[in-house]
Each structure stands twice: as structure tokens, then as C-alpha cells.
Design a protein that fits this description.
By secondary structure, this protein is mainly alpha-helical. Helix content is about 45%, strand content about 10%. The strands form two sheets. A three-stranded mixed sheet has the order 2-4-3. Helix 1 packs across helix 6.
């Protein structure tokens, strides 16, 4: 199973560990009244309540052709807005694991990666993963949709079924807990 995820980025974020991002996911669940022992969370329900965390946050569902062919969603951190392809939003409603992860990923960019928290990355050496905003967003998405405390004793197949994520996401999360 391919588990390679590209974390190419021109930005460096404030350092965040998996434990930091796990805590943030728990905090968001708590703030939104989602039981910490609940395995499945409706990511579109969370998306609709982002303004509880910050009244400036918003999202827009856009026609599929408004974003690039390889872009499923994107976050404009200057406008505090997530733009989501209509097919991705509909896929998340239908519990498509990849689409659910995409939306959760973009939420982290909106919540954590504000302009003051990012710097351009212009070094020639590798960016440490814990400073990479793309890794942070993937990690957060995994922790939000597949919380460590809920999946640590589950098989990958159980994670896919109960958390409504892709096999790839379940494999990656299980391998990194």
C-alpha cells in the first residue's frame, strides 16, 4: 500500500508535534461538544460550526472547475476561508474517506496557519516535518477523524469502517500512533 505523501511547500510553520496536534483535535472536539469517545465525526458538521472557534472563519463550496484539476480544496489564510470543490463536499457528506480527510486537512490550515505563523522557506536543506504546514495538516486531520485513544486497539479495517476514512489514511494513522 502506498503511504508516501508529498509535503512539498514553500512555507515553514511554527513547530508542532503529533502530540500538540492530537491535543488540538481533542480541544476542537470538546469546544464543539463532540464526545471524545465518539469514533465517527461528521466533518461537514464541524465545518459548518468553524465560526464557533473564530467568527472570521468561513468556507465556500465552489464549482469543481474553479480550482485546479489536482486541487480538491484550498485555504485562503488571508480571507480566513476554505474553498471546497462541490464534488469533494458531496463526497464528504457520503462519507468518502479521502474527501473527509481533505476537509479536515484544510481546517487545520485555517485554524493554525495564519500569516503571522508562516514564513517563506528558502533553505536548501530539508524542512523538518514538525515545521511543515502540510504534514501538520495531515497529522491533524488524522487525529480529528481517527483519535489515538479511539483507534489504538483497532485493526485498520475497523478504523476504515468505524471512522469512515480511506484504507490509506487508516494505515498511515495506525503506523504513526
Amino acid at each position: 500500500m502506498g503511504t508516501i505523501i508529498s509535503y512539498k511547500t514553500a512555507f515553514e510553520a511554527k513547530p508542532e508535534s503529533r502530540e500538540d496536534l492530537r491535543y488540538l483535535a481533542k480541544l476542537i472536539r470538546k469546544e464543539l461538544g463532540i464526545a471524545l469517545d465518539k469514533k465517527y465525526v461528521d466533518v461537514t458538521w464541524i465545518l459548518e460550526r468553524l465560526d464557533v472557534l473564530d467568527s472570521e472563519y468561513s468556507y465556500e463550496i465552489v464549482d469543481d472547475d474553479e480550482l485546479g484539476a489536482a486541487v480538491q480544496a484550498q485555504t485562503d489564510i488571508l480571507k480566513d476561508t476554505i474553498y471546497i470543490k462541490e464534488s469533494v463536499y458531496e463526497g464528504a457528506i457520503q462519507n468518502n474517506g479521502r474527501d473527509r480527510m481533505t476537509i479536515a486537512h484544510e481546517m487545520l490550515h485555517l485554524i493554525l496557519h495564519q500569516p503571522v505563523a508562516l514564513t517563506l522557506y528558502r533553505r536548501t536543506d530539508d524542512l523538518p516535518v514538525y515545521k511543515n504546514p502540510e504534514w501538520q495538516a495531515e497529522c491533524f486531520a488524522g487525529e480529528l477523524l481517527m483519535p489515538y485513544d479511539q483507534i489504538k486497539d483497532m485493526t485498520e479495517e475497523e478504523i476504515v469502517e468505524q471512522c469512515k476514512v480511506s484504507k490509506r489514511a487508516a494505515h498511515y494513522q495506525k503506523a504513526h500512533i
